[in-house]
Amino acid sequence: MKNSIKYSSVLILAFVSFGFACPKNKLKKAIVGSWSNSGYVENSIVADKSDSLAKDSPGIQFNKDGTLIKRQNAGWCGTPPITYSNQEGNWTVLNDSTIRISYSYWRGPVEEDLWIQSVNDTKLQYQIIASRNIEEKKD
Predict the structure, then answer these.
(1) pTM listed for this prediction
(2) How many Å apart are CA 98 and CA 4, to the nearest integer?
(3) Tell me: the pLDDT tens digits for 68-119?
(4) Which of 52, 68, 109, 133 could disulfide-link to 104, CB 3.0 to 4.6 Å?
(5) Phi and psi (nearest 5°) for 73?
(6) What angle do CA 117, 84, 81 make, to 5 degrees?
């Protein structure tokens, strides 16, 4: 009887743990790819899935290996014509709806938390919920 209870407890714990792990994996699979910004909905950025990042507009590419390319203004001026450049960085899933990205650009290294409001095969909608400058790690 004690072994049966012990076995049942282990099974329940395994199913609960598996249940919490799946949403993170689902988000990770859905987010991988290139996304070109197409507009805004209130405070959210809307991006369309594409084969590659557009040359003359912002976007973000999430790679399977946890690296990313963020395409954004090359400098501080937002007056057209805007020049865009690619910034390399990393990303990780924090929970079933939030990812953290880190990259360096003209202001220095930055870390942002993105709330993924929706993602499917063609559209991504997200909001930057935290952005902070970070110090570069010195070896």
Answers:
(1) 0.79
(2) 39
(3) 999 999 988 888 889 999 999 999 999 999 999 999 998 899 999 999 999 9
(4) 109
(5) -50, 135
(6) 110
Examine the pLDDT at 139 and tell me if it is beyond 90. Answer: no
Size (the chain), residues? 139
Structure token pair of residue 95: 């929970």
**Is 40:127 a contact under the CB 8 Å cutoff?**
no
Taking the C-alpha atoms of residue 11 and residue 13, their distance in angstroms, rounded to an integer, is 5
Distance CA 93, CA 121 (A): 18
d(CA 53, CA 34): 6
* Domains of the chain by residue range: 2-133
